[in-house]
Amino acid sequence: MAVNTESIKELRTRTGAGMMDCRNALDECGGDIEKAIDYLREKGLAKAAKKAERIAAQGSVFIYIHTNAKI
Fold first, then answer.
1. Which of 20, 44, 22, 19 is nearest to 33 (CA)?
2. How far is Cα 3 from Cα 27, in angstroms, rounded to an integer?
3. Is residue 6 pLDDT above 90, yes or no?
4. Contacts of the segment 15-23: beta carbons below 8 A, 24+ positions apart
5. Other beta carbons less than 10 A from residue 12's beta carbon
6. Can you give the residue range of the structural domain that contains 62?
7. Which of 16, 19, 31, 71 could anchor a disulfide with 66, C-beta 3.0 to 4.6 Å?
8. Count of domains observed in the chain
9. CA 51, CA 35: separation in Å to the nearest integer?
10. CA dist., res. 13 & res. 16, Å (int)
11. How many CB atoms lie within 10 A of CB 13?
12. CB atoms within 10 A of CB 8
């Protein structure tokens, strides 16, 4: 089904998602904006759950203060 630009624009303003994400969501949901919002929400939750499993075990943060305060 071809999705018109007005519905993509409306979905983008309501959700803040990217243009291609909105277009794909509308294609999946047959052009229904409410279903597309739910689809984007589920897709976002799935991505967030996948990223939540990651562990930040590598890397360090250091602070360097120059002794004569010239830098």
1. 22
2. 7
3. yes
4. 15/40
5. 15
6. 1-71
7. 71
8. 1
9. 24
10. 6
11. 9
12. 20
